[in-house]
Structures are given as structure tokens and as C-alpha cells.
Amino acid sequence: MSEAVFYLTTPIYYVNDVPHLGHAYCTVASDIVCRYRRLQGRDVHFLTGTDEHGEKILRTAQEKGMSPKEWTDEIVPRWLEVWDALDITNDDFIRTTEERHEKPVQTFVQALYDKDEIYLGTYRGLYCVGCEAFKTEDDLVDGRCPLHPNRDIEHLEEDNYFFRLSKYAEPLIERYTSNERALMPEGRRNEIVGKLRQGLDDLSISRVSFDWGIPIPWDEKHVIYVWIDALQNYTTAVGYGQDPEMFDRVWPANVHMIGKDILWFHSVIWPAMLMALDLPLPETIFATGFLQIGGEKMSKSTLTGISPHDLISTFGSDGYRYYFMRDISFGQDGEFSWEGMVSRYNADLANDFGNLVSRVSTMVKRYLNGTLPAPPRGDEVTEAERGLRAAFENAMDDVEASFDAISPTQAAKAAFTFVRKANSYVEEVAPWSLAKDESNRRRLEVVLYELTEALRLMSLMLSPFIPRAAQELWTRLGQEGEVASHTFEAARWGGLAEGTKIVTGEPLFPRIEEE
Ligand code: MSP
Question: How far apart are the C-alpha atoms of 38 and 460, rounded to whole Å?
């Protein structure tokens, strides 16, 4: 039997504006994890999408003088363009305004109602439209939501339907105290368990003061609270209520990748909803930190949002992807800086990796006419080659352990230990010296074979991070098709065939001069 599907989701993004670096951060990380799992031969289902209902979107549309549907239809393509420019390989894209989402959301909520998990009550309290969340006085700083200091907090008093969330505090505590992988990183798990221990209130899950949302099926003057609607994208997109065969095959998600500000919704409300219907729970919820600028969360509402396009034009999609994964320790907050990005790009991509590719391919061209010799026989392999090969094996193991721990930062570091080892191997074996004396011919062939093979393996190993350069290198090394359609089956030393033609080309990562 084939292994189960690896199902990973990103948050679905509010389309009140275009994406900034903070949004792209989670999506890029998710893409890297999915690309890695595909290389392992896993059947991956990678979902992203847009969250289009609720007051925030409604008000944005009103400000633009459009209907909410007109507005979302206009802005969604701007999101798709960014994902395209960043080489995101999602298998599906869900919009919460699609019928395939709206219908099964009603089915789900009706099922909760039928099980007496929902009752009618009155909500009196505070609401932040920026978060689309009910708040208590304790959540505010100087009377304002700390994440949306430019928006006024609203006072609501409405007849709402409530979900019996309070029942689920104990089962959730049990889950998070007995399963380390259910919620990561560890600090976040402890934080949620601490909050759960204070008990849970039932949750208002409908709104009556506006109608931009999915109607409550048994009482259509209510629309379903936008978070109850949005969280279900993870199940509706894989067939809940419509395609039981697909749902059984793909659900539960292996990873819900999210930002730390939406952890409560994902780690408390969502699993409680699933528990209420006896549905399987996601295996892992992973909360990333914030991308910051000047110590503050990057956001549109504080006017610090930078578009990914502004960086891609200088660093390329590869430079972008690599920098954010490598420099911001995954799971923690981290500061974006232009200078940091330039120096990371130059040091790792232009120098360590890009120069190595240029050097090796130029030497193969110059000394071997661009044609690979026979691979070394056992007795031709010296200590130096054994060191290089061992560095590869170790890097592969470390990369795997890092991805298992959902740490693309560690994985990037581990992969680059092999790149650095290959650089020190070049210095050690000094092919240019060997080339001076014809009696060293076979030794020269051996070391250049080894180096070219190292490049092929780097192309595979680095492809989740830098897919474009990896593909270009793969092609220059005379390899067929797409590197991304291979698996680590191809990651065995000695895979390059004698006689393969190697071509040189422009630098993969031209140096960026600091201004
Ligand atoms: N629509 C909800 C999510 C629903 S998921 C069922 C939402 N959308 S959002 O557009 O406001 O945020 C989407 C994601 O972007 C969140 O995970 C959030 O943490 C992330 N980020 C937004 N700004 C960010 C940074 N500055 N840094 C890192 N991620 C941040 O919430």
C-alpha cells in the first residue's frame, strides 16, 4: 500500500489588501516543506487560499465603493501573482466564496446543531474587526488591540448562536500534554495549555448585523462567524461533505502552518469543532513567529508592509526564499533587513554555492572538454573523497531530521555544510595543480567527477529552497527533465554517467553590490 498523503495547509489570507513579506513568510516555508516531502517520494497535497468573508473585507469593499464579491474578485489575482513569482507549488487554492466551500460549511454547522453543540444566546462584549475576534479587556493595551492599534475596538450586543466550546478544555489539555507534536514549537504548546487551564467560555459563532458571510442554514438572518467559516477551508477543500473518498484519503492534515497570532483559533477552536463531530484532528499545528521591522510586526495596518515583488526584483525568488528561511530562526520572531539580506545572499548563494558551480563547471570544460570521465573505481577513492561523501551523507541525515522537526532554518544550515565541504575539498585537491602534469590525468578526472557529482546532489538537496537555480544547474549537468520531479532515490553517490556533457553558463547568483 502506498504511504498516506502528506497534507499541509497555510492560513487562508484576508484579502483586504495585497500580500506583504509577513504573509509570504508562512507560504514560502510551507512550500519548502512540501517540496522536500515530494523529494522523499511522498504524495503531497499542499493547500493555500483566501479568506473572503467577514466585516473586515466587507468594510474594505465599502470603502472602495464595490460589492465585497467585486472587491475579492479584483484582489485575489494579486495574491496569485505573488505566489507565482515565489514559485509556490500549491496543489489547490481555495476561496471561501466558492460553492465547494460554502455548502459543506453549512453541512458542518448543521451537524453541530443537530448534535446540540450549538445554542442561541446573547453576546455582549468587545470585538476587533482587524483580528475578526471577540476580545476581553485583558486583551487590550490602552483600550486598543495591540495588533491593530489604528482601529477602534467595537462594542457588540447581539443575539448569536454559541458553540459549546467550554466542554472541550479538558480534552484539549489532555491532547497537548500527551502529544508533543500536536502543537509546536514547545513554548507555544505550553502557552496554550496554560490558557486552557483557566477554562473556556462558549463561543459566539454567528453574526446578525451584516450579511457578508455564509448563512446559518436553519436561521438565515445569521451569518456564520468568519473564523468558523474560514477554519473549515482545511476540510472543505479536501472533500468534507462532498467527496468522502477524497476526504478519507487526505484528511487529517499533517501540518497546519500558521502564524502565532492565529494560534488560539487553530489550537483550541478548530480541534474542538472537529472533536464535536468525532473527526480526526490535525497531526501538527506549527506556529511561526512574526517577521518584524524595527522590532514591530510587519503589517499593512502599521504601514510597514513591504511587497515581496520589491525584493524579488533584486534577489530573485530563490534569493528571497533562501534568506527568510535561513536568517529567521523558524518558530521565532525575526527582523528583516536589506543589509542582512544582501550579505546572506552574497555569502551563501553568490560565493559558497554560485562560485563553486562556476569553478567546477569551468574546470570540467577546460580540462576535460566538458565531458565527464568514468566514475572512480574503489581503489581510486582517497581519504579526501571519503570525507566529501561522508559530508553529503551527514548533511542528508541532518536535513531530514530538521524537516521532521519542522525547522527549515536548520535544514538550510545542514545543506550548506555540504556546500562548504565541497569548497574545502576543491582547495584540498587543487585540480589546477593536477592539470599541470599529464601523469596526474586520472587523478584530475577523479576529483572533477567527484565535484560534478557533488553539484548534482546539491541541486537535489537545495531544490526546495532555491528551485530555479537548482533546475538550471540540473540542466547544465546534462540531467533530463525537472529536478523537482525526481526523488532522493536519485541521491546516491555515483549517479552521473560517464560521457555526460557539462555546460557552463552565467553566474547562478550574480553578486549584489551593497549601496
Ligand atoms: N484569515 C486569517 C487566517 C484564517 S486561517 C483559517 C488571517 N489572515 S491574515 O491575512 O491576517 O494573516 C494570515 C497569516 O499571515 C497569519 O498566519 C499571520 O500570522 C501571517 N502574518 C501576517 N503578518 C505577519 C508577519 N509580519 N510575520 C509573520 N507572519 C505574519 O489571519
Answer: 11
Question: Does residue 15 line the site of ligand 1, with CB under 6 A?
Answer: no
Strands 284-288 and 183-184: parallel
Q: Which residues of the chain have pLDDT under 70?
A: 1-3, 515
Give this prediction's pTM: 0.97
Kindly give the distance from the C-alpha atom of residue 73 to the centroid of ligand 1, in angstroms, as a whole number: 20
Q: Cα 410 from chain centroid?
A: 15
Q: DSSP for 342-354?
A: HHHIIIIIIIIII
Q: Give pLDDT, residue 227.
A: 98
Query: 34, 53, 101, 128: which one is catalytic?
Result: 128
Task: Dig out the grid coordinates for 465 from the structure.
Answer: 529552497
The answer to whether 184 touches 191, Cβ cutoff 8 Å, is: no
Task: From 448, 452, 461, 514, select the one nearest 491 (Cα to Cα).
Answer: 461
CA 258 to each of CA 52, 279, 335: distance values in angstroms, whole numbers, following the listed order? 17, 21, 18
**pLDDT of the residue at 300:** 75
Q: How far is the CA of 49 from the centre of ligand 1 (A)?
A: 12
- Among 434, 394, 433, smallest CA distance to 415 is for 394
pLDDT of residue 79: 98
Cα–Cα distance measured from residue 378 to residue 391, given in angstroms and rounded to the nearest whole number: 18
Within 13 Å, how many C-alpha atoms sit on residue 94's CB side? 26
Burial 257-285 (b: 16+ CB within 10 A, else e): bbbbbbbebbbbbbbbbbbbeebebbebb
CA–CA dist 145, 148 (Å, integer): 5
List of domains in the chain: 5-316 (3.40.50.620), 342-490 (1.10.730.10)
